[in-house]
Design goal:
The protein is about 15% helix and about 25% strand.
Length: about 850
């Protein structure tokens, strides 16, 4: 349990006569290792920083669908990822820091009297008695006990006595003691009495210094304005890991995920009701738990980082904005970041111990502990805090908590560290050797899931994000971390880049695993994460486990595979809803490896194409339902040639409307010869226009459920000759930038006709046919013969276009047609060909994209 001793008074008694430890040159800020990453700790993009991209988070989308306020300040989007051109990281982190000094001096056990500092004290024996003894020694040495953790043998303390550290290091039963920062403790964190005047040599945080642990959480790079309506379609990251389909099977209900970050905006419409206040806490003042809401919510939009992380994990599935990976999970806000952006060891200690005490299932940690990017066990002033945090992480794991953490944004090889000049980031950074015994914490603490970041490429595949840290044997798994849209402070939405954004994807999938594998240990959940991951091909030589660990995290596998009892063959589509005529992705699991699976539609006819199960028995591929299928519930059947069977229940939405035909006008009469059909559709759409004799349209409205034949439709730019034998012809054209189209048919004889059209959009969606427009074609009118004396009978032809219709015409126009006259109806096969070919084009496009994304 966490036992806070806030405001416990110091007993100013005679200090114990203890042997002094190292007494070197006084340092107000203890020398140690760099912690500022080129992009901040785990949530900003180094490349964007280098290019001078704007870092200010912009108001993105309105809080509800109904409202649409304009964005306040459009933000500059981060540069596109180009991993192919990326070379392995340099010897040191990409970030450049100013005022880099010479090699760090030896550890100091003494600071100038009067400077307030915080310390960790680790006891040799982890027990309540040992901690009580250490706390007594803290008070006797002129300090104040901040918190006690008897479970792990750690005490946090504060003192302004220059000899305090040396005294504690010489105390019997104390294994180690060290500072938690290099800057002086100031403002509301000061608890020791001001009995010793502060000296002029006191070191406050460096001017402009901000914590980089949360990946510059107050200035995320690559922030972009987001539109106002539901934004699921913009969540490329969710589609990449199969999250929309996974939610159809399991949403994480009953699982608690702790977000150790800068707080969660509980008033956000996508997060209201998702956060359990009783499990939330503030730890950002001396690492002492504060359960008041003000302590664990963000103050303003500079603290949006935690809200963004929370949205990725569990934004509500409520028809507003976005949807998280596990919308049924419960979030707990654990604020471990102070307003200046620092996550000091005592804050992290409080966070992990709180997670253990409250029984969290998963925690997300998108930060590194300040002020060092790499804490070294070889440094006397860093090793104690490293040990304390490690003990807390290990204890939380023993209590059933799976901890997930961002790998960092320095484009740095964590498996082959050399030098670092990124910290301390709260005073003056120093360049130092970090090749031995140095770790980025918490991500490199054993048992923590270390997450690298991937970016979406133009072809839909994924590759290493330019900023992501890497390292063979260090990276456990990868997740999307570039251009991630999520919730931010004030009910808005924005896109951020960073491993800070990748980590919550894994935490969300871990929540799904915890729901589908109740009772699984953290180690078992981590093993499942890695076992179910999808291989990532990478690009430009940046391939393999060095960059992606076991591969891309797989949400769909988390809810379908390795279950007890086994689930059997299963398939799902995003949100369980599809639109007639629009291609959609089907994900399946637990089929017989390598078997061919046929999908049968509601009419009993197979849909276009077949699925081939991979070596893991997984399916992924496109399908499309007829644009003529009526809206409502329907069921698809999946049948494998090796015996697998599954059903897929869907809600079908009405198809996109067909083009608008502007000419001919219904009921009009046009001249024989060339008939020109004009209209409007979506810009860039392929429009197929059918011209046929009117009697061919009998029963047109009953034609539904076309299949998709393997046919080729050419985009015609020239007039099409009317086929008088068949009684119809077809022309396919592409609309211009305004959506206008024109189709011409030549050699059209007199008679009653109709025309209709459908469109295939750029994404492969096929519309329904437009209601037929019926009209007449009139032959050149012939007037009664005129007898000219001496010349005989001379027929006189009425000039075309006069509108005169011969009195001998068999029909008065298409509007008089009732459909009762005999005649072959317009070939259903033709209509099916038109609709089916558009669907085929779309399906093939989607299949290529899906294969690229899922398989490589």
């Amino acid at each position: 349990m966490i036992r806070s001793t806030r405001r416990r008074g110091a007993r100013w008694a005679t200090a114990l006569a203890l042997t002094s430890a190292l007494v070197l040159a006084p340092t107000a800020a203890f020398a140690a290792d760099p912690a500022v990453s080129p992009v901040g700790a785990d949530g900003t993009d180094a490349d964007a920083a280098a290019s001078g991209a704007a870092d200010t988070a912009a108001a993105a989308a309105a809080p509800t669908e109904a409202e649409a306020p304009a964005a306040e300040t459009p933000a500059v989007e981060a540069p596109a990822e180009t991993p192919a051109a990326e070379a392995p990281a340099p010897e040191a982190p990409a970030a450049e820091t100013e005022d880099v000094t010479a090699e760090v001096p030896a550890a100091s056990a003494r600071v100038v009297d009067g400077i307030v500092m915080n310390y960790v004290v680790n006891t040799t024996v982890r027990s309540a008695d040992a901690v009580a003894d250490a706390s007594d020694a803290v008070v006797a040495a002129g300090g104040v006990v901040l918190s006690e953790y008897p479970e792990i043998g750690v005490v946090t303390a504060q003192s302004r006595d220059g000899d305090f550290l040396a005294t504690m290091r010489g105390t019997l039963g104390v294994e180690s003691a060290g500072p938690t920062r290099t800057a002086e403790v100031v403002d509301d964190e000061v608890e020791v009495p001001a009995e010793v005047p502060a000296t002029s040599g006191a070191t406050a945080p460096a001017a402009g210094a901000t914590g980089a642990g949360p990946q510059s959480l107050d200035r995320p790079l690559g922030t972009e304005v987001a539109p106002v309506d539901p934004l699921e379609a913009q969540q490329w990251d969710m589609a990449a890991i199969g999250a929309p389909e996974a939610r159809e099977i399991e949403d994480g209900d009953g699982v608690v995920v702790g977000v150790l970050d800068s707080g969660i905006d509980v008033s956000h419409p996508d997060l209201a009701g998702q956060v359990d206040a009783s499990k939330s806490v503030g730890c950002s003042v001396n690492g002492q738990p504060d359960r008041s809401q003000a302590a664990w919510v963000p103050v303003d939009d500079s603290e949006s980082h935690g809200t963004h992380v929370a949205g990725t994990i569990a934004a509500a599935d409520n028809g507003v904005g976005i949807v998280g990976i596990a919308p049924g999970a419960t979030l707990a806000s654990v604020k471990v970041v102070n307003y200046d952006g620092f996550i000091y060891p005592e804050y992290a200690l409080c966070g992990f111990m709180w997670a253990a005490d409250q029984g969290f299932d998963v925690t997300n940690n998108s930060y590194y502990v300040d002020p060092w990017e790499f804490w070294c066990s070889t440094e006397a002033d860093q090793a104690p805090a490293l040990e304390s945090v490690t003990r807390a992480v290990e204890f939380s794991e023993q209590q059933g908590v799976l901890n997930v953490a961002a790998a960092g944004n320095s484009n740095y090889d964590l498996a082959n560290k050399t030098r670092s000049a990124s910290g301390p980031n709260d005073t003056t950074p120093v360049d130092r050797d970090v090749s031995q015994g140095c770790s980025d914490i918490p991500t490199e603490i054993p048992g923590v899931v270390t997450v690298a970041s991937v970016a979406e490429q133009a072809d839909g595949s994924t590759a290493k994000s330019s900023f992501s840290n890497y390292g063979e044997g260090v990276i456990d798994i990868a997740a999307p971390g570039s251009r991630i849209l999520s919730t931010v402070f004030g009910g808005l939405y924005a896109s951020y880049n960073g491993t800070s954004m990748a980590s919550p994807h894994v935490a969300g999938v871990a929540a799904l695993l915890a729901a589908t594998h109740p009772g699984a240990s953290p180690a078992e959940l981590q093993a499942l994460l890695e076992q179910q991951a999808t291989p990532v091909a990478g690009a430009g030589g940046l391939t393999g486990s060095r960059y992606f660990g076991a591969g891309l995290v797989n949400a769909f596998a988390a809810v379908t595979e390795d279950l007890v009892p086994a689930l059997g063959p299963v398939a799902a589509v995003a949100d369980g809803t599809v639109q007639a005529g629009r291609p959609f992705r089907v994900l399946g699991a637990n089929f017989v490896p390598d078997e061919t699976v046929t999908v049968t539609g509601p009419d009993g006819e197979p849909l276009d194409g077949e699925f081939i199960a991979d070596a893991e028995g997984r399916l992924v591929g496109p399908a499309v339902l007829s644009p003529f299928l009526p809206a409502g519930a329907t069921t698809l059947e999946l049948t494998g040639d090796a015996g697998s069977r599954a059903t897929l229940d869907l809600l079908v939405e009405e198809a996109v409307a067909g083009p608008a035909i502007t000419a001919p006008v219904a009921g009009s009469t046009v001249e024989a010869g060339t008939v020109t059909v004009t209209g409007t559709a979506q810009p860039g759409a392929l429009v197929t226009v059918v011209l046929a004799t009117a009697d061919q349209f009998e029963g047109f409205e009953q034609m539904v459920t076309p299949t998709s034949p393997s046919a080729r439709l050419d985009v015609a730019g020239e007039p099409v000759a009317f086929d008088t034998d068949l009684g119809f012809s077809v022309s396919t054209i592409q609309t211009d930038a305004t959506g206008a189209f024109t189709a011409s048919f030549t050699g059209v004889p007199a008679g009653d006709y109709g025309t209709t059209a459908l469109q295939v959009l750029a994404d492969g969606t096929s519309s329904t046919f437009t209601d037929p427009v019926l009209f007449s074609v009139a032959a050149a009118a012939v007037v009664p013969p005129v007898t000219v004396p001496g010349t005989g009978v001379v027929p006189v032809t009425t000039p075309a276009g006069t509108g005169v219709v011969p009195v001998t015409s068999t029909r008065a126009g298409a509007l008089a047609y009732t459909g009762s006259e005999p005649g072959a109806p317009l070939s259903a096969a033709l209509l099916l060909l038109v609709a089916g070919a558009g669907a085929l084009v779309a399906a093939r496009r989607l299949r290529r994209r899906a294969d690229t994304r899922i398989d490589g």
